[in-house]
Structures are given as C-alpha cells and as structure tokens.
Design brief:
With about 130 residues, this protein is mostly beta strands. The protein folds into 2 domains: about 35 residues, no CATH class; about 90 residues, Immunoglobulin-like, CATH 2.60.40. The strands form 4 sheets. Strands 6, 8, 9, 11, 12 and 13 form a 6-stranded mixed β-sheet that branches. Strands 5-7-10 form a 3-stranded antiparallel β-sheet, with no helix packed on it. Strand 8 and strand 9 form a beta hairpin. The radius of gyration is 16 Å and the shape is globular.
Length: about 130
C-alpha cells in the first residue's frame, strides 16, 4: 500500500474489490494515523473505543495518543477506576484498557485527562451504554 503524500491526521482505509467497497463497522475498520499528529506536548487524543458500546463493566480499549499517564478517564461525568492499569513501564502510549464505570443507558463522551489537560471529544470518543 502506498500512502498518498497529502495524507494527514486520521485516515480510514477502505478495501475495494470487484464485489465493491468494504462495509466494515468502526471496530473492524483500519485507520492510518498519518504524520503529523501533534500530541506528545499537548493533551491526550482519543481516536476510538473498542468496543464502542456495552454495559457497565465492559473492558474498553481506548485508542489514541498521549495516553501513557492518565490522571482521570471519564465516561460522561463518571470516572473510571484507574487502579487496574499496568505499571507505567508496561503501558502503551497509544492505547489503554479500563472498565466502563456505571452509567446511564445511551451515549456518553469518553475524556482522558493527563497533567497536560483533557482530550477533546469527537465522533469516535463516544461510548454507548446498552
């Protein structure tokens, strides 16, 4: 695969065959994070959640950047328990997994906060309680 020179930010990758384009869900999608992604000096960025829905207690993997040292992760206005995060030396800056705390049915924004500030909510940072 060749990445177009003008690719920047988050790019969804679609597969097209003689049968037509792929019809993937978000969780099945491939994303290319093309340079530049300006994160290390700024607040965390949330690119997506896997799975994007489920009941309280669901293990949710947050995909993004600048996720190494969160001070708080909120699902709506409810903070997730960070005590189950691995030791700092075993963490990944680009993803982390927490259990969805109790919340109301329906969509809530997931915001990751570090000492550099909170992530900005966007389309793929929404978790839907079922």
């Amino acid at each position: 695969m060749t990445v177009p020179e003008d690719a920047s930010g988050i790019v969804t990758i679609s597969v097209v065959t003689r049968a037509g384009p792929s019809q993937s869900t978000f969780a099945q999608s491939w994303f290319l994070v093309a340079q530049p992604v300006l994160v290390p000096s700024g607040p965390p960025v949330v690119f997506g959640l896997v799975p994007p829905h489920g009941p309280a207690g669901t293990a949710v993997t947050i995909l993004g950047a600048g996720l190494l040292e969160p001070t708080r992760i909120e699902f709506g206005r409810v903070s997730a328990d960070l005590s189950s995060l691995p030791p700092l030396e075993d963490r990944d800056q680009d993803q982390l997994t927490v259990a969805a705390p109790p919340g109301p049915l329906g969509p809530v924004r997931v915001v990751v906060t570090s000492d550099r500030g909170p992530s900005q909510p966007w389309l793929f940072s929404t978790f839907v309680y079922t």
